[in-house]
Amino acid sequence: MVLWSGRFSKELDKQVNDFNSSISFDNRMYAQDIKGSIAHAAMLARQGILSNEDKKAITAGLTGILEDIESGRLSFDPAAEDIHMFVEAELTARIGDAGKRLHTARSRNDQVALDMKLYFHDEIGRILSLCRELIETLLEKAAEHTETVMPGYTHLQRGQPTTFAHHLMAYVQMLLRDVQRLQDCDKRLLDTMPLGSGAAFGTTYPIDRQMTAELLGFTGISQNSIDGVSDRDYALELASGLSIFMMHLSRFSEEVILWCSWEFRFMELDDAFSTGSSIMPQKKNPDITELIRGKTGRVYGDLTTLLTMLKGLPLAYNKDMQEDKEALFDAVDTVKLCVSTFIPMLKSARVLTENMRRAAAQGFINATDLADYLVKKGLPFRDAHQVSGQLVAYCISQGLVLEELPLETLQEHSALFAGDVYHAISLDTCVRERKSAGGPAPEEVKRQITLAKETLAALL
Ligand code: ARG
C-alpha cells in the first residue's frame, strides 16, 4: 500500500513506479535522511506536537534502521519510491503508529531539500580535505624546485625563463581559490536549513525551525518556504565550483601529458601510475591525466544538466528536481576519484630537471633580458627590442644561441654592449633577477610558498 492510498483506488502501474522511483540512486542519502528525521522528531516533541514516548520510539527505531543499513542487515527495497518513503515505511513496520506520526509538519519536498544539503555539506568537507592534500603536495614539490629552471611558455612557444616551483605555485593559487569557492558555497548552504517549509507553504503546527537547524549544525533557516523547497542554487554553485576545479586539474593534466611526451621529457610518471600499449612495446602512457581531462567534460555536463533542468521550472517543487541528484552525485564522485588518483601520481612522478634546463637554454628565452640589458644602458625599450630581434634572427641563421655571439658581433648591432652582457643574459641571472612580486626568482617563490601555507592554514 502506498503512502497516499487514501485518494487512490488503484495500485501504481509497475512501469510508472520504476520510472518514478529514485531509490536506486538517492539511497546513498540514508544517513542524512535518518539524521534529519531524528532532529525533526526531537523538535516536534519539544513543541508538544509529538509525545515523548513517540519521539523515543522514533529515535530508537531510526537508529536501529541506520545500524542495520550500515551492517548490511537491511537492504533497500527497489520497489520503494525513494529513500524517504523507504525509511518511513521501514520505521512504521518496526514501531507501528509512532512511525506514522513522524511525517507530521513535514513534506518530502522539504525533506529532500534538507537531505541534499546535509549530504553535500559532508561531501564538500571530503573534497576540501582532498584539496588540502593536493595543495600540500604541490607546496612540497615547489619547495624542492625553486632552483629548477625551465622555459616559461606563452602560445606554447618558449617565452621567458621560469622555475618549476614558480609554475607549480600558479596551480596552488588556482586551488586556493577553488577551496574558497567551495567554502563559500558550503557557508550559504548551511545558512538556509529548509525543513519546516513543508510542501512549500509552511505549516499550521507550532514548529521551531531554529531548533531543528541547530540540532543539524545549520547556521540559519531558509527565510521563505517556497524558496526553501525550490532552491537548488547550492547545487549549481557546487557544480560550478567543481567544474572550475576540474578545469584547473584538466589544464594541469594536459601539461603533465605534454611533459611526459618525448618532445618535452620534463617528467616521467612512476610505472605504477602509467600504462603500456597492447601493441607498441615502447609505450608508457599518461592515462590518468588523459582520463582526468576527459572526465572534466563529464562534470561540465553535470552542471549543464542542472542548469537546464531548472531553467523553466515554475515554483515550487516539481518532480523534474529529482533529476538533480544523479548529476550532482556524479560531479562529486568524479572529482573525488580524480583528485585522489592525481595526488599519488604527482607525488611519485620524476621531474627531469636537466631536460627542463636544457630546453630553457635553447629557444632564445633570454631575448627579452638582452633587450632589458640595453635598456638599463640607456636605450629606449622599443629600440632595444629591435636590436635583440635582429640578433635572434642572426643567431637562427648561424645556428647559434645569444650567449655564443662574440662581443664584436654584438657591438656591431649596438655600441652599448660590453663584457658584462654574458652575465646579464645567463639563465641563472635571468631567473634570479625576476624578483618582482609574484615572479620566479627563488627568493620570491619561497615567499609565495610561505604565504600560500599561511593562507591554506587559515582556510582549512
Ligand atoms: N524523490 C523526490 C526527489 O528526489 C522526493 C520529493 C518528492 N516529492 C513529491 N512531492 N513527489 O525530489
Q: Which percent range describes the beta-strand content?
A: under 5%
From the alpha carbons, calculate the radius of gyration and give it in angstroms.
30 Å
Unreliable residue stretches: none
Distance between the termini: 49 Å
Shape: elongated
Tally of contiguous helical segments: 20
Instruction: Provide mean pLDDT, rounded.
Output: 96
Write out the strand line-up for the largest beta sheet, numbering strands in chain order: 1-2
Q: What would you call the structural class?
A: mainly alpha
Distinct small molecules: arginine
The largest pleated sheet is described as:
2 strands, antiparallel
Helix content: 55-70%
Strand segment count: 4
N-to-C order of helices and strands? HHHHHHHEEHHHHEHHEHHHHHHH
List keywords for this structure.
460 residues, mainly alpha, two-stranded antiparallel sheet, two-stranded antiparallel ribbon, 4 strands, 4% strand, binds arginine
Describe what you observe in this structure:
- The chain is 64% helix and 4% strand.
- The chain is built from 20 helices and four strands.
- It has helices spanning 14-20, 23-26, 30-46, 52-71, 83-95, 97-101, 108-144, 164-190, 209-215, 225-230, 233-260, 287-311, 324-348, 353-361, 367-376, 381-398, 407-413, 421-424, 427-432, 442-459, and strands at residues 149-154, 157-163, 267-268, 350-351.
- The strands form two sheets. It has a two-stranded antiparallel ribbon. A two-stranded antiparallel ribbon has the order 3-4.
- A hairpin with a 2-residue loop joins strand 1 and strand 2.
- Helix 7 (108-144) runs parallel beside helix 13 and helix 15 packs across helix 16.
- The chain is elongated and about 100 Å long.
- The site of arginine has 10 residues, from helix 7.
